[in-house]
Amino acid sequence: MPIFEYTCLRCSHPFEAITLGSQTAACPDCGSRKLEKKLSVFAVGGGRREAAPAPAASGGCGSCGDPRGPGACSSN
């Protein structure tokens, strides 16, 4: 079921409504059917999101304490 966002042109009330087929929404505050349909934030985009990069290792490497992280020193 699609959910649409509207702003009432009569009383300026923003709201969401589920509308099926040829149904038209009405403002829940004043009952007006004079509405401006808005683009839903949920509907915008839709592309695949890339995963965020893993944070860099912090602290020493565990054996020598080099702050650059594991494998940075020559003692391994």
Explained architecture:
With 76 residues, this protein is mostly beta strands. The chain has a domain at 3-38. Helix content is 0%, strand content 20%. It has strands at residues 3-8, 14-18, 35-38. It has a three-stranded antiparallel sheet with strand order 2-1-3, with no helix packed on it. Strand 1 and strand 2 (14-18) form a beta hairpin. The radius of gyration is 27 Å and the shape is rod-shaped. The relative contact order is 0.18.
Q: Can you give the mean pLDDT?
A: 76
Main sheet: strand order? 2-1-3
Major sheet: size, sense and barrel closure? 3 strands, antiparallel
Q: How much β-strand is present in the residues?
A: 15-25%
Helix-strand string: EEE
Beta strand count: 3
Alpha-carbon Rg, integer = 27 Å
**Quaternary structure classification:** single chain
Alpha plus pi helix count? 0
The level of helicity is under 10%
Any descriptors?
76 residues, 0% helix, single chain, mainly beta
Please give a quick description of this structure.
The protein has a domain at 3-38. Helix content is 0%, strand content 20%. The chain has 76 residues and is an all-beta fold.
